[in-house]
Design goal:
alpha/beta; Ubiquitin-like (UB roll); Rossmann fold; 2 domains; 5 helices
């Protein structure tokens, strides 16, 4: 081999290239990990009403580790998403020293029983709120169905000026509402919105004319609804000539 100058030249060039490559890697490693390239500016953006400055500062101080090059964007995103009211985070790097954090907050629309809150996407999250939110209850996995149902029932009741303050969905997927924390409305399983709209249409000429309070309405009838009147005596209330509901022969399903 030693008497082959061409081969020796090739080996020398190879060793030189390897040495230059190692040198380049060493310089690159030092540059990437050098304290000369810190993240100097962190811009947090988003429409936030619950996430506080103190919470953001805590994450920046305790969770963000590394230089501009070594900072793990995925771990940074996860650190911000640990905050109770944060739904989603996007993190971007901008040369030479800027980090941009875009935060989307949860928009709470209801309470999930006494355990959590539900956002506008029907997602459950753990946070504290003092707002007078409606309460939704149902089997696990039906959170989005309950949020969608609540919105439909709320819109259907708008002409009466009433609000669903509590919504239940049973294991059999039967609906029940509480209106303004006073009136319980049994809807049942099928055609819930249609049944409620018929109730809203009939209300001004039926229940609105009753002279005594009522706390329970059952809409599970094909041609009307039934009303429970506490202490009602038909002989003492002759002013109501029309019955509040048309009750079929068979019991509701």
């Amino acid at each position: 081999m030693w008497d082959k100058p061409q081969l020796l030249t090739w080996l020398a060039n190879l060793l030189t290239a390897l040495a230059l490559l190692l040198l380049f890697y060493a310089v690159l490693f030092l540059v990437i990990h050098s304290p000369l390239f810190p993240v100097r500016r962190i811009a947090v953006e988003g429409d936030m009403s619950h996430v506080t400055r103190e919470q953001l500062q805590y994450v920046v101080k305790n969770e963000l580790k590394g230089t501009f090059f070594t900072l793990d964007l995925d771990k940074t995103r996860q650190a911000f998403e640990k905050l109770p009211w944060v739904r989603r985070v996007e993190v971007r790097r901008y040369w030479p020293d800027r980090l941009e954090v875009n935060i989307e907050e949860h928009q709470a629309v209801a309470r999930w029983g006494t355990a959590a809150l539900l956002n506008s996407y029907g997602e459950r999250f753990d946070a504290a709120s003092g707002d007078p939110l409606p309460v939704l209850e149902g089997p696990d996995g039906t959170e989005k169905q309950l949020v969608d149902g609540y919105r439909q029932f709320r819109d259907a009741l708008a002409p009466l000026g009433k609000q669903p303050t509590h919504v239940w969905l049973s294991e059999r997927r039967a609906w029940r509402l509480e209106l303004d924390r006073q009136l319980t409305v049994e809807i049942g399983r099928d055609d819930g919105v249609d049944r409620l709209q018929r109730f809203v249409t009939a209300y001004p000429n039926s229940l609105a004319r009753l002279e005594q309070p009522f706390e329970y309405v059952d809409l599970r009838y094909p041609n009307g609804f039934a009303v429970k009147l506490p202490g009602f005596n038909p002989g003492e209330n002759k002013a109501v000539r029309q019955p509040a509901a048309a009750k079929p022969a068979k019991a509701p399903a």
